[in-house]
Batch of 2 targets.
Target 1
Amino acid sequence: MSDVLIQRIKELEAELEKLRSQLKESSETGDVEMSSSPSLNEDCKSDGNTGSSKKERKKSGKDRPFDFSAHPRRHVALRLAYLGWAYQGFAVQENTDNTVEARLFEALLKTRLIQDRQTSNYHRCGRTDKGVSAFSQVITIDLRSTQFCAGLGITLPENVDVSTKAASSATSELPYVKMLNRVLPQDIRVLDWAPVVEGFSARFDCQSRTYRYYFPRGSLDVVLMAEAAKRYEGTHDFRNLCKMDVGNGVLQFERTILSATVKPAQPQHASSTDQYDLFIFEIKGLAFLYHQVRCMMAVLLLIGQKLEAADIINQLLDVENNPRKPQYSMAVDYPLVLYNCHFEGLSWTQESEEGGFVLAALQQHWTQSTVKAHVLQGMIQGLEDRGAVSSNHCWLVEGSRQRNYRPLLERPCCESLESRINHFVKRGRLEREEGENGGEMIHRGKRSKHSNISSETPKQNMDSKED
Amino acid sequence: MSDVLIQRIKELEAELEKLRSQLKESSETGDVEMSSSPSLNEDCKSDGNTGSSKKERKKSGKDRPFDFSAHPRRHVALRLAYLGWAYQGFAVQENTDNTVEARLFEALLKTRLIQDRQTSNYHRCGRTDKGVSAFSQVITIDLRSTQFCAGLGITLPENVDVSTKAASSATSELPYVKMLNRVLPQDIRVLDWAPVVEGFSARFDCQSRTYRYYFPRGSLDVVLMAEAAKRYEGTHDFRNLCKMDVGNGVLQFERTILSATVKPAQPQHASSTDQYDLFIFEIKGLAFLYHQVRCMMAVLLLIGQKLEAADIINQLLDVENNPRKPQYSMAVDYPLVLYNCHFEGLSWTQESEEGGFVLAALQQHWTQSTVKAHVLQGMIQGLEDRGAVSSNHCWLVEGSRQRNYRPLLERPCCESLESRINHFVKRGRLEREEGENGGEMIHRGKRSKHSNISSETPKQNMDSKED
């Protein structure tokens, strides 16, 4: 009996070994580079850690007590770019550590730029979902500073005689961008930073957010899509074009879209009609609901395939006549980029060389993607030359084209807003109350997770979640 | 004791399960689709397995004895396309099972199209290396057939009364393409097949092979590269532009290049000077040496970066004056495609729908690659708009540009051919003999791995390895 068991154990161990090496291989091939910065050994001369030796600095952050109270702090905005394809989203999550924010906070702690997240006065401009990338994610936060003189957003340490330090007012600030990029993973980069006044918030002071969604023409009618996109512009109730997040306190769905366009990625070849041309759906708004852009894109794709008329947008925005969202899938994640978060009056400070490093790394990574795309295109061309014919199935959607398309307005609907509110009121997460002027007010219930839910004063830059 | 062993077994099984799902997850994210063919349950009506039920056919191949001798065989050519990025090369290897050929033979065995590899009369046109793709890999092999009448390449079964089967001469042949594509992995596809005369060989009867290497312009001088490439044309000794494989019996390095060009991937935009334009180095030859194309490309890239003059090619081909290869790295693997293998007089038989399925799957996969490339390009554009400047480092080469470039002819050299021959002669793998006319003949030694090594009759289509 033991022999049989021992044999089984040997087989299992061999199998495990094989799988482990396969797993190692496949995780190595998926590696994404956004950095070609020099060796980590290159030391950073203006680092304020004058009191510690280099060796000590390389120890784990937890081992060495660091006296944050001896240093000034300053309130800054950091501008980040990241490739979202390998992450479970931007925001920290309970069930996974594989988020952009988790990596960011590791870097901030490791570089001793903050003491901990809770006291860092951290705000983020938007939350991007799993698979979604960003070129201009902005966060505001208090970081350790070398500036012992008063200045924009600077808080001097208490119990420190700043007059003795005043001579070092000529000290340059810590090179935040370089320090963080050295320890961040390759596919997350700090692009630049800006000093900001205390109280400035990435979340509440953002003037507008711009998303881009990239897609190939295929057999889509992009002219029709461009015309249809305009219908999104203006202030509308977008409940039928998002994933309602009532449980998190999002109770009103009016948002303002400043512009919504569909344009070729390469404008210089605008007269081309090639199905392999790329287009960009670019949308600028004050703030966005959860999955809003991807729902808007999904509907545009249906219009581009001529499965729906452009007018479907007007109907979906008419929440009086269409109070409940029809069931449809949102567009896939990987083509979406939070391209710009706009703030007035910030002086973005770049650090010499850093921009060049990020550019070089992006160019190498772009090379890999585009070369593979061309290998595939060569094969596509070869097949077409031999007579293979494209179906008119949308290439962004996996699987085959559905045989019988069911118009949106004939489909089953999702729960209404009222029904969802009732659901949470029953569970004590929300409470109804008679408000002023006899209107109904809904706010946090006793069992709510969040402290700040009210449907009475909707502010468009106070999103709990974005796409 | 048994309890401890049983416990260990349970632990190992749990660990295995965990790894399997991780592996599945990571292979799904890296999953390459080349097929959108219908469900595997769709049965294939003209399958000659009339004697067995469907249930039996779905059992593992090993369980059910199959009488191959009752069926005709036919000699065919199969044309394959595969994306090499997830494989350790085309040819079966001892230390890994992750090769295109391994998957191919699994499929051939599973579909009962062959009994075993050894008796299948298998030849392949070329061997592609790890990471290298193919659009026209051709193999020749004997497959099970339904054709009981005499025909091109058909061998009738012995001891079977074919006259009773003659009525089924109207039976169509097995749908080889469909049968294999149903069981092959997504990134390996059979495109079509051709009946061939017995004795026809994918290896020896190939008229020419064409490779393509895709690369972005970046800061390369592509005009100079195009002019330089012409110097490869003609019959030359390419020992300085390959990896010598003396141990495997490759002892002479003369090869004929029919054409070598550098052209834009999109000819319609030929007047563009954009650094993000893609180019193709396309090279057609009778046969190629191991890593030859990648070495040729590496030298072209040095010329394009103006680190070497175009004349370096002439010098490397001048083996009298430069008998030993300077040390240099070959170009990376992923941009290389074995694009065409040319055979005269074959009637490639396509199966309806299969071409369309492969095309649709390639388009979806192309969409992923090109969308990601455009996301990256959008970020690159944004950085350039903010003043970031490209270095002139070649984007195909990882890492930073070397500070001091060392000209090829000033570098240390690899071993000479003579030295390598001596090495193997010492070990008994090769033997020297005085040949006719007083010349030296080198052939298989007593301890050689291969039976067919001789340097006296070089045939250009008898490569043991190709790039």
Note: Residues 28-33, 36-59, 451-459, 461-467 of chain A have pLDDT under 50 and may be disordered.
Target 2
Amino acid sequence: MVSPEASHFQSSPMAKYAGARTRPVFCFSDVVLFLGGAFMSLILVWSFFSFSSISPNLSFSAVKTDESTKCSRGIDMRYDPTDPVFYDDPDLSYTIEKPVKGWDEKRRRWLELHPSFIPGSENRTVMITGSQSGPCKNPIGDHLLLRFFKNKVDYCRIHGHDIFYSNALLHPKMNSYWAKLPAVKAAMIAHPEAEWIWWVDSDALFTDMDFTPPFRRYRNHNLVVHGWPGVVYNDRSWTALNAGVFLIRNCQWSMELIDTWTNMGPVSPEYAKWGQIQRSIFKDKLFPESDDQTALIYLLFKHREEYYPKIYLEGEYYFEGYWLEIVPGLANVTDRYLEMEREDATLRRRHAEKVSERYGAFREERFLRGERGGKGSLRRPFVTHFTGCQPCSGDHNKMYDGDTCWNGMIKAINFADNQVMRRYGFVHSDLGKTSPLQPVPFDYPDEPW
Amino acid sequence: MVSPEASHFQSSPMAKYAGARTRPVFCFSDVVLFLGGAFMSLILVWSFFSFSSISPNLSFSAVKTDESTKCSRGIDMRYDPTDPVFYDDPDLSYTIEKPVKGWDEKRRRWLELHPSFIPGSENRTVMITGSQSGPCKNPIGDHLLLRFFKNKVDYCRIHGHDIFYSNALLHPKMNSYWAKLPAVKAAMIAHPEAEWIWWVDSDALFTDMDFTPPFRRYRNHNLVVHGWPGVVYNDRSWTALNAGVFLIRNCQWSMELIDTWTNMGPVSPEYAKWGQIQRSIFKDKLFPESDDQTALIYLLFKHREEYYPKIYLEGEYYFEGYWLEIVPGLANVTDRYLEMEREDATLRRRHAEKVSERYGAFREERFLRGERGGKGSLRRPFVTHFTGCQPCSGDHNKMYDGDTCWNGMIKAINFADNQVMRRYGFVHSDLGKTSPLQPVPFDYPDEPW
């Protein structure tokens, strides 16, 4: 009898397209070399048009275009030439059941036909998050989800990312923690302009609104998760990484990973066996069903040579961090950052929200250069993850009572919101209190409150 | 004794800065004429830098910049020169209590110092919405608010607008329907790159994800609301316009309007009297307290020559529309749009979400050119407003039962979501059912389901 593993890898498209996997990932410079001249002339055309009221739309000049939506992003949202692309291929499907082949070429071709999307495509990121389609069982669950979502929208606005909220299953069997995979695959196809898809669980929030992930560090990797190689390969724990937050490169390797990953999930005829296999290797796994996190650790553990070179286990900062480790320290972090602001007037300077990255970059350079984050650090935690709290169902880990979770969430959300609202002239003077806000004095915190 | 009206206008900054009001509104072309040469050279510098890996950051080259966030929007989010701007003025306040003076010059100066924000500034829009800071009384209230917010985020992603969710009071007295004014003012100051601030109530949603407001039509106006002059000036009704959705130009005129408007609200010593005045003129007003909507109608009615020329009462389409008028017709609208898609293959073509505007523009040109929207039209309603439903408190108008509201909302939300999810390969086959979604067949709806 064929073992689930074997049959799993037989059923995987990876064997067939091994070539694609070893090929270097979709590369910005290729396209640029190929299109340099064309794009240069295009940008010249633009810079001309932006001084006139003539529509710069090249494909559709009959229709009046709206300058605001087009130019404000430097991309032409109204240009889609009729040249055939993967969208015109009847065999290409957004669904999780059908593998996508030759995705790198397909994406490159699309980008070549949409040159206005080339600048910035190197690390352009679309964030995906989501939750269940109906009301939460926990009476304050949806209120918390709303605030978690607002926090992500704030982060994306400050850094120029698009964000998509998924609240419906794309496959009836791929539910709970498996629901993210169909959503991520569909987003990869719907966003060929994006190099990265950033999945962030609904119960995770950004607690450093200035920080930007070190994309350079990930340039040779296709998946970034918070994790520790030693715990994967020595301790064999199902918590060796956290699959609730990940950056996945929009490329063929990722398409194939998602297929392989999905084949350990509820859609697989071998689903039950995968649960047994996971528990047999990762003894601390709490429940019998195969889950997406243990499945990913399994791939790293069992097929190290194949996956480890492309999966970056980020442990140098809180790519996502355990809330119980973080929340008690927020007061000290606040004090330290206020100290930086007292020390350097540049950090006290009021500014347009849109140029906030300039001040974040300055703080990194002046005060945080080379400083690791994570446990015990006074660096703002980048992402705080309320693992075990289950805000929507309310079925939180019995280790702590619900109020510890809900109060911790409000505190962390307001800690993050203070970084946002400063740019609107206000702050929460008490992290436990959401409203009303207090106006920020000019030159705060140098000038006493 | 000074009448509240008189004292109101004495206390208004408008008298003092009448000059500012009559001055033509902040104009894109002024800046362009002034900066044409400078910007042209800058864009040339950019187009060069975008082909190299050298940091194009002019102000802060010591710090590595993240190409993705900078280039992807064609704006430099890391450039903020040290030249003094209004943010450096200790007397400039974000709060509703203190008037802002000379805003047009201040904004123009900021834009001159941030030339990368000039292209697209003509109609660049930031959307603001929000709700109360705590959980809703209605058990499904927060779930509905979450879905209403997702809908706005979807619309903004498709059209390249930023969006900000306000869930805390910026002034303790400015609550409920008055809370929007401090939020809008703070957003105007935090977003000098934006020409328009678009307030949209939490219980309003976009039911045409393709439609873009006809900004050209509003070029000589500073405020756009859904309303009817005849009802303001003849019928004298407090429903002559709806203040739950408005576009307000980020200019000095608007700053002064907000001051004047606010002076009829809870912060005013004359608050009680304003309620009486409003009821004495607008007999159908339901409650004694002064409200923001009647206050705005009052300004149009009482000071017509001053406000009517600058306030566009949009009645040609559902700038916002009453849900009871809209929801029963959604099935017919769906059929009509499917018919268009059967008729023209361009509308059936799958495409990247980012270029959706090209197809929306095509549909306008091919099938909807010059067609009015609004009551009785089979044009998709642009914004459906669940006035009277009170999703959060649950205290809906007794004219209809709650389920009519909640079911109508789910139906309208899924109607809108179908326009979004098509670009991710899925649809709700039944508007009453949120999840799971159904995969869309290739060439749908030409190919039978």
Note: Chain A has a mean pLDDT of 87.
